[in-house]
Amino acid sequence: MSGGRRLYLDGVSVVFDGFRALNNLSLIVEPGELRSVIGPNGAGKTTMMDVITGKTRPTQGTVNFGEIDLTRMDEAGIANLGIGRKFQKPTMFDALTVFENMELALKAPRGPIACLRWKLTGGARAQIEQTLEEIGLQERAQDLAGILSHGQRQWLEIGMLLMQDPELLLVDEPVAGMTDAETEQTAALLVRIAGRRSVVVVEHDLEFVRALGRRVTVLCDGSVLSEGSIDHVQNDPRVIEVYLGR
Ligand code: ADP
């Protein structure tokens, strides 16, 4: 992706009451990259997402997005830069249609640059329809969000985030509770989304991470234990010990 910004965590530590949730964590996500982050419970995955989005401030180290130092910014400022986050539990209005939820997401507070881009690209309807196609819900536009399946709700929420035109999308355990077919479709969706945007996916499901087929970072005890292809990290003796030996 040309002109995109690189995410760079440099030596980030987060200490809660003397406990190091992140311990000198360094990580680079290139513009347009799709990165999976895995690791056992308590590895620091959620804290890492919290630090990137400004929910938690690092005790040490810096987080940069391109030239911008996120460490000095608050959550709203970071969101306005084009960093979106999807939490595990979808938030939407069940009594509104899929299309109406997308419309609301489009009208949510946006930075001036995103607003200008939207005006220049010809308005809401085309953009919503295009995104519904991207998330595979074009046939469901007039259905109430409340009748969607669990998987479809996750996709709708990803679509709602896309309406904000994020440059970096952070996705927290998107396939928890999904059927195998939904999991496969979610992998294809995230692969489609990346490229034009950077995507960081935190996930437990190794088969899903394999389906994403991109670079994987394994976190353990708040820092990077291993990084590379899924085959590389799955064969790394340190990773095997952490997943099977504990
Ligand atoms: P993961 O998402 O990989 O399961 P977390 O980032 O949630 O890991 O947590 C990392 C460690 O930090 C855990 O041991 C957790 O108990 C601890 N932790 C997370 N948030 C807090 C907090 N607000 N106060 C104290 N400890 C915390």
Automatic annotation (TrEMBL):
Keyword NAD belongs to the record? no
UniProt keyword list: ATP-binding, Nucleotide-binding, Transport
Q: A Pfam family for this UniProt protein?
A: ABC_tran
Alphabetized InterPro entries for the sequence: ABC_AA/LPS_Transport (IPR051120), ABC_transporter-like_ATP-bd (IPR003439), ABC_transptr_urea_ATP-bd_UrtD (IPR017781), BCA_ABC_TP_C (IPR032823), P-loop_NTPase (IPR027417)
- Transmembrane portions of the chain: none
Task: Give the top-rank taxon of the lineage listed in the UniProt record for this protein.
Answer: Bacteria
- The ABC transporter domain covers 7-246
Q: State any single GO MF term.
A: ATP binding
- Please name the NCBIfam families in this protein's record: urea_trans_UrtD (TIGR03411)
Question: Can you say what this protein is called?
Answer: Urea ABC transporter ATP-binding protein UrtD
Q: Which species expresses this protein natively?
A: Falsiroseomonas selenitidurans
